[in-house]
Amino acid sequence: MHSEHILIPASDGNGDVPGFLVRPEGNGPWPGVVMVHEVFGIEENMIHQAEHLASRGYLVLMPDLYSRGGMRKCLRATFRALNNGQGQAFRDVEAAKKLLAGRKDCTKKIGVIGFCMGGGFALQLAQRGYEAAAVNYGIMPKDLDAVLEGACPIVGSYGAKDKTLKGAAARMEIALTHRGIAHDIKEYPEANHAFMNPGPAGPKIMRPLMQKVAGFRPRPDDAADAWSRIDSFFAKHLR
């Protein structure tokens, strides 16, 4: 694999957006995947996830949604965009999608994947021109039915012990089945939020709190199963 930090031309002319690009071995072309990072930004867990996906034969681009004024300022703006379904964060993700689609080493078939906050974006982006979406313990929208109108196939993974998303998997299963949207939704009985991370969640100073109090810790077996389902789902809809 080859990874590099690149600049993504903003779709609205509002400056370039830093991004992390990972290319598989070989010459391609490969299907593209836009990855939307979790709430802690582009850190070691997200880089590992991008590299894992690239190792499966996908051209992966992860835009930095916190690049416009620092994490604290951008965190508020990004969550505001997520709640409203529109805003700078969505425009920056669209810019990443456009860059992938214009590359010669991309097949033009593009999926989207997200974790935590990014999973919420991946869910809302499912109706915006992607071939498939992977929603990993993503924040649920206020109006799920509206978000699923015209949505692409969705694969979703949740933890039953995640108190922030209680009942989310069941809601997704019912809504997707009702709309006839191809899907694979699974809830892992012993998993909590962020269970797919290969390492502890959050900045080092917060990790003891995240693990002991919130219960956010890796579950390698569940993560491997979730990735196996994502691999199969993307292979079917992106290849």
From TrEMBL:
Pfam families: DLH (PF01738). SUPFAM superfamilies: alpha/beta-Hydrolases. Transmembrane segments: none annotated. One of its GO terms (molecular function) is hydrolase activity. Residues 18-237 form the Dienelactone hydrolase domain. This is Carboxymethylenebutenolidase.
